[in-house]
């Protein structure tokens, strides 16, 4: 049966401008936050998708930010070759990196970072970008940038060490359960959230408010437990490392709504053979993204700023799990 879908919220509309892109590439229509294409400014560039390569392409933006992010991914690649150190262990928590690529976009050559598409294979991708830490300005920020950052997302950021620049979620339409709706919100919504609003939004994102408990609940529980498992692994990494401090970096939580509806083991077709598979990590991904402001750790101290946000996030997800 054909799936019926409908957009219900339009604060964060799907991209409607038409940048000149090289053949085979398209705008990443699951991009929920960050720098985007703009109809009136051909210099503004968002993320691209290379559907044949299974990757997304992130433009290197402001020179110092782009260079820092490239160096970060390159240092991880080098560490990977040399084994079991903190940098090598971090590779499991970030998208795979396939190197830089020059592309001509809007008639100008730009460099992109090729990254694993975290939504790859998801039929109905739910995506949430959560920016981590009370402090989102880096050690080289001007007093002006620092002030700007401190004035944003104030209600959540200062209490939880978290803020919500954007998300999209598939939901069952309350009025017509045979329909699925897509809800998208951007940074204006995130900036308006109180702590309570943040908690409610998280529950909504995990489809944990659904009145359709009988069918949805078992898989919602699987989803929440898997998110917690991946968050705990990231926390373990942060507790052990003294190398890096992450400012204005995000966690991207992605899951496939189409896997939420059934608690039965799903069967997939591979090379004509059906096989059973029920690995939540296949359809739930929590990864660190956005490394434009990663710095060597000050005095080799742990990144308490990030750890504080991560602990809050774990508490919020735990509370949702216990209330379903
Ligand atoms: N590896 C990925 N796979 C899938 N989607 C991604 C990936 N990386 C980024 N995205 C999407 O792109 C968005 C923006 O990513 P990112 O935060 O890296 O960009 P940015 O322009 O540096 O953001 P900011 O303006 O906060 O600095 C994310 O919210 C997410 O929707
Ligand atoms: O959340 P908002 O209000 O969108 O604010 C943006 C956010 O802080 C981004 O992280 C930052 O990009 P960088 O991380 O690349 O600095 C961007 O700076 P910019 O406008 O100078 O690009 C800000 O505008």
Automatic annotation (TrEMBL):
Keywords, comma-separated and alphabetical: ATP-binding, Kinase, Nucleotide-binding, Transferase
Record field: catalytic activity: 1D-myo-inositol 1,4,5-trisphosphate + 2 ATP = 1D-myo-inositol 1,3,4,5,6-pentakisphosphate + 2 ADP + 2 H(+); 1D-myo-inositol 1,3,4,6-tetrakisphosphate + ATP = 1D-myo-inositol 1,3,4,5,6-pentakisphosphate + ADP + H(+)
Assigned EC number: 2.7.-.-
GO biological process: imaginal disc development; inositol phosphate biosynthetic process
GO molecular function: ATP binding; inositol-1,3,4,6-tetrakisphosphate 5-kinase activity; inositol-1,4,5-trisphosphate 3-kinase activity; inositol-1,4,5-trisphosphate 6-kinase activity
Pfam families per record: IPK (PF03770)
Record-level GO cellular component terms: cytoplasm; nucleoplasm
Family assignment from sequence similarity: Belongs to the inositol phosphokinase (IPK) family.
PANTHER family listed in its UniProt record: INOSITOL POLYPHOSPHATE KINASE, INOSITOL POLYPHOSPHATE MULTIKINASE
Protein's name in the database: Kinase
Protein's organism: Drosophila ananassae (Fruit fly)
Gene that encodes the chain: Dana\GF14878
């Amino acid at each position: 049966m054909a799936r019926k879908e409908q957009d219900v919220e339009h604060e964060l509309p799907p991209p409607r401008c038409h940048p000149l892109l090289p053949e085979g590439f398209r705008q990443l229509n699951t991009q929920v936050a960050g720098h985007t294409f703009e109809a009136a400014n051909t210099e503004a560039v968002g993320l691209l998708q290379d559907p044949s390569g299974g990757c997304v392409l992130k433009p290197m933006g402001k020179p110092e930010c782009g260079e820092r992010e490239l160096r970060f991914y390159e240092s991880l690649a080098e560490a990977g070759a040399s084994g079991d150190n903190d940098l090598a262990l971090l590779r499991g928590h970030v998208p795979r990196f396939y190197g830089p690529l020059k592309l001509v976009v809007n008639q100008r050559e730009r460099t992109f970072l090729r990254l694993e598409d975290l939504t790859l294979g998801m039929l109905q991708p739910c995506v949430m970008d959560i920016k981590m830490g009370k402090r989102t300005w880096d050690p080289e920020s001007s007093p002006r940038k620092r002030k700007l950052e401190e004035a944003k997302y104030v209600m959540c950021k200062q209490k939880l060490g978290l803020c919500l620049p954007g998300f999209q979620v598939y939901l069952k339409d309350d009025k017509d359960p045979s329909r699925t709706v897509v809800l998208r919100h951007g940074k204006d919504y995130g900036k308006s959230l109180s702590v309570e609003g943040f908690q409610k939004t998280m529950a909504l994102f995990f489809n944990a408010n659904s009145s359709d408990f009988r069918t949805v609940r078992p898989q919602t529980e699987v989803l929440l437990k898997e998110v917690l498992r991946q968050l705990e692994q990231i926390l373990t990494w942060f507790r052990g490392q003294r190398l890096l401090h992450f400012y204005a970096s995000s966690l991207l939580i992605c899951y496939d709504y189409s896997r939420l509806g059934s608690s039965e083991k799903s069967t997939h077709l591979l090379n004509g053979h059906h096989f059973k598979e029920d690995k939540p990590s296949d359809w739930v991904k929590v990864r660190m993204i956005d490394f434009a402001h990663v710095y060597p750790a000050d005095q080799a101290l742990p990144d308490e700023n990030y750890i504080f946000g991560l602990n809050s996030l774990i508490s919020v997800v735990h509370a949702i799990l216990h209330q379903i």
